[in-house]
Write a structure and sequence with these properties.
This is Phage-related integrase/recombinase. 54% of the residues lie in helices and 3% in strands. The chain is mostly helical.
Length: 321
């Protein structure tokens, strides 16, 4: 019986072995990408640029508690990443530089069929991406708040946390770091002692939020061996990941699909509603904890139509009639 001949063709994969799309790590993806850049004889400065920018991209995704596996990265995550950089005070040029590196990486991975879809296929640099900030509508907010079962400790806690986010626009890390002593009950305000830019600030809160906090603290208890304001059932400080998880679950339960249900969206929503209510740029900068006015100007530009409609309601000249 004649022996079957082997095929004479050799199928080479990107790294001499097959990498399952779901198993490709970020580190391996960058390694393959950098090797490809070097094979194209690009300048050493270009290689260094890609390495540094992609290292920064990975670090920021981790800070935001987002997955870093290339196959799990989505277009919306990359937009959120860009907004995060802006809110932390990065200039447009720095954000765009990092986006260019990210775009080059994922274009390479998709071309080599190492990821199922290309999250940067429609990526726009900062000049155009600003228009994609989408806040919650009032109806969506109501549906989110309705998801919290206030008959349970976690439901009440989550409800109050959403109130604080909507009322102050605090970052999720700042929210989780609030201690009991940071709530100034007689002043209707909260002290943010662990801000990203290092400057302690005080943010005002409404009477409604104060009352909700009082109700929550009554159930939380005063002496539980933890200074954290918002705690888990085990009396441990709640984490950013836990906040993001319950918001994601609430979003699914409320059938909200066209807006990402995240702490950052609460921050955008606060900015929009504050501007509609007559807050000026400097007040908004102080409350949000921005080191510069750049991100505040983005909000003013983005929500200018809504601000104009609000002005027609509180115009001083109109009140003279």
């Amino acid at each position: 019986m004649a022996q079957k001949r082997r095929s004479n063709s050799i199928n080479y994969t990107t790294d001499q072995f097959t990498i399952a799309k779901e198993d490709l790590t970020f580190e391996k993806a960058v390694e393959l990408f950098i090797r490809d850049v070097k094979l194209k004889n690009r300048a050493d400065a270009t290689v260094t640029f890609y390495k540094n920018e992609l290292k920064g991209f990975k670090r920021t995704l981790k800070e935001m508690n987002l997955p870093i596996e290339p196959a799990k990265v989505t277009p919306f995550m990359i937009e959120e990443f860009a907004f995060h950089m802006m809110e932390e005070g990065s200039k447009a040029g720095a954000v765009n530089a990092r986006l260019r590196a990210v775009r080059a990486l994922f274009n390479f991975l998709f071309k080599k069929r190492l990821i199922p879809e290309n999250p940067v296929a429609d990526l726009k640099l900062l000049k155009n991406i600003k228009g994609d900030i989408i806040p919650f509508s009032k109806d969506q907010l109501q549906r989110l708040f309705n998801q919290a079962d206030r008959r349970t400790f976690t439901g009440l806690r989550n409800y109050v946390m959403m109130m604080v986010m909507l009322d102050t626009g605090v970052r999720v890390k700042e929210l989780c770091q609030i201690d009991m002593v940071d709530v100034l009950w007689d002043d209707n305000s909260i002290v943010i002692r662990h801000p990203k830019n290092g400057y302690v600030r005080r943010v005002p809160i409404s009477e409604e939020t104060i009352k909700a906090l009082e109700q929550y603290v009554n159930h939380r208890g005063q002496n539980i061996g933890n200074n954290a304001l918002f705690v888990t059932l085990d009396d441990k400080r709640i984490s950013k990941r836990q906040v993001q998880n319950f918001l994601s679950q609430y979003g699914k339960g409320a059938s909200i699909t066209d807006v990402r249900c995240s702490p950052h969206t609460f921050r955008h929503t606060f900015a929009k509603m504050a501007l509609q209510g007559g807050a000026n740029m400097f007040e908004l900068q102080q409350i949000l904890g921005h080191s510069s006015l750049e991100m505040v100007r983005v909000y003013v530009h983005l929500f200018s139509n809504e601000i104009g409609r609000s002005h027609r309601g509180f115009s001083p000249v109109k009140q003279l009639k």
